[in-house]
Description:
The chain is α/β, with parallel strands linked by helices. 37% of the residues lie in helices and 14% in strands.
Amino acid sequence: xxxxxxxxxxxxxxxxxxxxxxxxxxxxxxxxxxxxxxxxxxxxxxxxxxxxxxxxxxxxxxxxxxxxxxxxxxxxxxxxxxxxxxxxxxxxxxxxxxxxxxxxxxxxxxxxxxxxxxxxxxxxxxxxxxxxxxxxxxxxxxxxxxxxxxxxxxxxxxxxxxxxxxxxxxxxxxxxxxxxxxxxxxxxxxxxxxxxxxxxxxxxxxxxxxxxxxxxxxxxxxxxxxxxxxxxxxxxxxxxxxxxxxxxxxxxxxxxxxxxxxxxxxxxxxx
Length: 271
Ligand SMILES: C[S@@+](CC[C@H](N)C(=O)[O-])C[C@H]1O[C@@H](n2cnc3c(N)ncnc32)[C@H](O)[C@@H]1O
């Protein structure tokens, strides 16, 4: 297919990719025919995927507001995705223009779009990086410029860890970020959960095997291990719409249809 002028040379247009599939599910335009075909097939098998993406995004917004209200002024958003409505820097800087945000994603389209959006924002930047290579991210020049790790920071890993298999040691990688965080920092995380219906799970797995990000679902207990050494804030690890909803009605009768668990945890202050 023809390459649009905003599409970096390094991307494979023929292979559906998680960032662009998610962008399509959220109604964005930074996606290609292969991503849309994939997402349409996904929606046939699992029509909840689109509302689930929106609920995940709404959790992200509420969690960022919670962090700013709790005194956080710097954010490291790993697996940040293609910019869409309600980006982290927009929410945080609206509450306090002094907030600083570093976006990190492994997908070049996400990074290119973030760079374009942040051209005139000297308190936010975008970096291409892999979550499981924390040293490259934490010690990058741009991280040194934007994030002061001696001060509390919110590290966001929202709907990204389920694309990282156990063989890539995601728990060890997350522990490395946690050890870099100052006491009082937050880890904000959401993660796809094992599906109750095995037959649909198989169909979805088969579909994702053909994408650039095959994905892995974990049990709530395995997800909770990402928070080791931290204290989960209320209400703990719950379905995305159940995390501090703005209105009780937003939770709906079937929060589990969101298929994604979410939690925010704080690094304890020294006793
Ligand atoms: C479903 S999107 C989530 C975007 C955003 N965090 C949100 O929740 O709205 C997942 C993102 O994780 C990125 N991703 C997947 N594996 C990654 C990795 N190993 N390192 C960094 N980013 C990764 C994908 O490129 C994609 O942009």
